[in-house]
Amino acid sequence: MAASTEPEAALSVLPRADGSATYAHAGYTVMGSVNGPIEASRRDEHPYEAHVDVIVRPAAGVGGTRERHLESILQSSLSQLILVKNFPRQLIQIVLQIEATPENDYVNTKLVQASLNFPVVPALLQTAILALLSAAVPMRETAASTVVAVVPQGAKRLLVDPVPRDLEAAHSVHVLAFTSQDELLLAESEGDFTVKEWDEVYEAAKEICCRPRTLDEENDVGPDLRHFLRTTLEEKVAEDLYWK
Amino acid sequence: MATAQPLYVLPGDTIDPSLIPTHKKLPLRLGPGLRHIPPSAIVPTVAGQLVADHKKNSMWVEYNGGRYIPAPNDLVIGQIQRSAADFYFMNLTPFTSNATLPQLAFEGATKKNRPQLASGALVYARVVLANRHMDPELECVSSSTGKAEGLGPLTGGMAFDVSLGLARRLLMARSREEGKVEILELLGAEGLAFETAVGRNGKVWVGSDSAKTIILVGRALRETDDGKLDVDQQKKLAKRLIREMK
Questions:
Q1: In terms of domain of life, where is this protein from (chain B) (predicted)?
Q2: What are the respective helix, strand and coil percentages of chain A, to the nearest 5?
Q3: Taking CB atoms and an 8 Å limit, are A244 and B64 in contact across chains?
Q4: Pick from B96, B126, B155: which residue ends a domain?
Q5: pLDDT tens-digit map of A170-196
Q6: Are residues B208 and B240 in the same domain?
């Protein structure tokens, strides 16, 4: 079954960085720090917009091709959210350190690195957004992201936030992100699937990322990510403006 | 000024039109954290508390944290990085591109008689030009009156880092009533002799004849900032620090 625990987050945990956040959900814990806008190196300088530099560090070992792939996915999504045109020739640096990944209870894994890339993307993206908000980097809007797996049998064919065991059995895994204006921001898929299946995945993900949750609902599709983001930030802002 | 129910906004939120102040004569002024998308949408860009001033017909988002982004007419404390033929290159925040300070932008400066500042010197200055495509430009003299008005090189003393929110509160015209920060007045009332300069970029310079006083005032500011102390706690802190010093 999907792990339908509530996400947890803490903001501005690092004293030296401009903004930082930790985020834990579905077995993943990620810490992120944001510095910027700062001076870009000559190589990264763009005359009309800020360069968004994303660095993903795995829980163990040094990053490789896998992390570079995640970085490129996150970089293109976050550049859409940040008002990059406001800071030409500058750099916004986002460092994401994966601290914990869910373990497969049935297999002894020696390597802590995830075998699939996509399940970690929502945690990385949420951490990056929380850290950016903590750093007060001007942004166009916020976003929410989720992972959906299509499993071959069972009552629930679509699994939200699947555990590693489900991922092994899954035909395909999809990661989707929606902005706060209900627009699709990111859609990456892996495995075999039909157009019909993708449409179902799209609807399920949109449900989680966009629709406000009502209290009397019983079908646990997942946490209300947008509400979570808002309450987390409200707490932080209220604490910062204690003197008001 | 503050509304009864604080309204928190996130980037991209829609602002209810009833919250936008209207005025017969004055144009609407948007402060930090808001952007105007023509024709009529006003959208927050940071997470914070939306504040509207109906008298001045202005609105802005109040937040704390992040990196200082230069804006015209801000008072800042910069450090001289190096000197060129006509300019000093100044550092306002670490790792950002340099701000320029013309060597003639001091009170009474002429081509023959201009202040000689070594690299590392602190200068209290006003931001004249803050344009996203250019490096920010500073001045230490009011261009209308030709007077320094308190700006210029800061000699002796020490600069302390504080949060941008505390710097903003210290710079308020009535920092005690509106900003709820009283620690400097309290320490002054206890008999300490010191002077301060507050930079909007999160720097407070403290000057005094006695090094002990400088450290004490700096520590008091840092503790007020980190501990998020209210006025009563600030009073206790001032008393404790004075007692410890004796």
A1: Eukaryota
A2: 30, 30, 40
A3: no
A4: B155
A5: 889 999 999 999 999 999 999 899 999
A6: yes
* Nearest Cα residue to A204 out of A160, A162, A161, A238: A160
CB B224 within 8 A of CB B181: yes
Structural domains of chain B, count? 3
- ipTM > 0.85 for the complex: yes
Chain B closest-CA separation from residue A194 CA (Å): 34
Q: Is residue B221 part of a domain?
A: yes
B148 and B183 in a single domain? The answer is: no
d(CA A65, CA A41): 23
Query: Do B151 and B177 belong together in one domain?
Result: no
**Listed residue (A198, A196, A192) closest to A152, CA to CA:** A192
Total-model pTM? 0.92
Q: Which of A33, A53, A78, A241 to mutate against chain B (most B CBs within 10 Å)?
A: A241
Kindly report the average pLDDT of chain A as a whole number: 87
CA neighbor of A34 nearest in space, from A19, A44, A14, A50? A19
- Does B68 reside within a domain? no
What CATH number does the domain containing B168 carry?
3.30.1370.10
> Using the beta-carbon criterion (under 8 Å), do A136 and B46 form an inter-chain contact?
yes
pLDDT digits 0-9 by tens, B183-222: 999 999 988 999 999 999 999 999 999 999 999 999 999 9
Quick check: A5 pLDDT over 80? no
- Claim to verify: residue B133 and residue B179 sit in the same structural domain: no
Residue B169 near chain A (CB below 8 Å): yes
Domain closes at, from B155, B174, B194: B155
Nearest C-alpha neighbor of A129 from the set A49, A214, A244, A9: A9
How do residues A115-174 score in pLDDT, each as one tens digit? 557 889 999 999 999 999 999 999 999 999 999 999 887 666 888 888 888 888 888 999
Q: Which domains does chain A have, with CATH numbers?
A: 8-240 (3.30.230.70)
